[in-house]
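Minutes, project check-in
Item: structure for the 491-residue chain
Input as provided by the requester:
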Amino acid sequence: HGAGGRMEIEFRVPARQGGQRWLLARGEVAAAADGAPLEAYGVMIDITERKRAEETSSRLAAIVASSEDAIISKSLRGIVTSWNSGAERLFGYTASEMIGEPVIKIIPPENANEEAVILRTIRKGQSIAPYETVRVDKHGRTIDVSVVVSPIRNAKGEVIGASTIARDVTERHRHVDTLRENEARLRLALRSARAGAWDCDLQKRELHWSPEMFALYGLDAAAGVPPRGCLVRQIVPSHRKRARMEFAKAILQGGSFTLEFPIVRPDGSEIWTALAGDVIKDQAGRPVSARGIDQDITERKNWEKRQAILLRELSHRVKNTLAVIQSVARQTLRTSSSPKAFVEAFEGRISSFAASHAILTETDWAGAELRKVIRSQVAPMAENFEAQVRMRGMPVVLAAEIATQLGLVMHELATNAAKYGSLSVPHGRVDIAWRVAEDELCLLWRERGGPAVEGPPRAVGFGTVLIQSSTAKVTQRFGRRGLSCRLEFTL
């Protein structure tokens, strides 16, 4: 200030306690007539606190300007006084479009009362804790946001406005909704598969179950996951040692594993379960956790058991069937007058046998309905089965062995009727009636309207032998009006 006049200088000096202090030199310089400075006088002011406040304010301004969150300030009347770039990106309005406008512009009409509550709370000097709500952008799109509101105070501590920080949580909500949907689908899948999910912290020895696991083991979820010892005791004793050894081996080896064992529920019911999971190891190779599912496989086990039984039964039936066919072949050959007669008789009897087997196959060999067996054997021999054959009797289901025997008997009777009896003429009729008393089936075969019968056949053929050997008792009457045959089977 060689020319004199006022001066004001800010500078930093070392502080006694270390660091630096800011000083302000404010004063005047007196000059002579020729302009030479004569003297200077003034004051020295410590402005360190002011400078720190300015630096803090600058940093806050930079943070607000660069923040991804929407940071908005408003008056106590709800008029926007500042609008950062985060607010511009989130709501689509520029600062010039929103400053001086009511903040309710971005609040949906159905949430209008929300702003009144906020302003009342802020006027009391209280903050609004973070909460989630909905806002509207410039284009009318609703946005899920997390909002926190704090009062703004002046130097005297008076509340003069409010600061709002809004964060877009739409994507987070979408992820949460997706997780809930996936969890619901998982729950549905577990229920459909009669399975439950579990995870085990091997270091803390803590086991966690999904709700489906409690239902699987027949336990009360309110009581929590039972101790491991209780679970082991639910395993059927004959499988307990094997299950424990296989599980311990799976934990040591790591990777995926599957165990199958039966358990007994508290109500006494027994089911088979399949425990499938993965063992997770740390960097040192130590097993730290395991997780997986436990599934009720009782139906599969029962099916496997049934299949094994069926295979044994099939082997037995095949042997019996071959023995029967062998016997039929020998007896048919012995009573046949020519190769052609043998082929016709043998093929007919084998077809009869096959028809009975077809009916039994439909029910997995659980039994055959008597009416179906009769129809399968007699219908091929009648020109008009519905008109020529009448069946009367209660519904009866025959065991497999009785069904095949009855089928062969019906085939022989129908064959003879078609060759010599009532089914050999269009107007002939056959009445078939039966009844069941205790463990005995009594069946009556009666022919009418066929050629006149002179009497019993002169020679006893294999058909007659087959009928006699396949029944408990047989009574035949060869009347002039036709054959009457009473057959008794032990059920």
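Outcome recorded: Residues 298-335 form the longest helix (38 residues).
No further action items on this chain.
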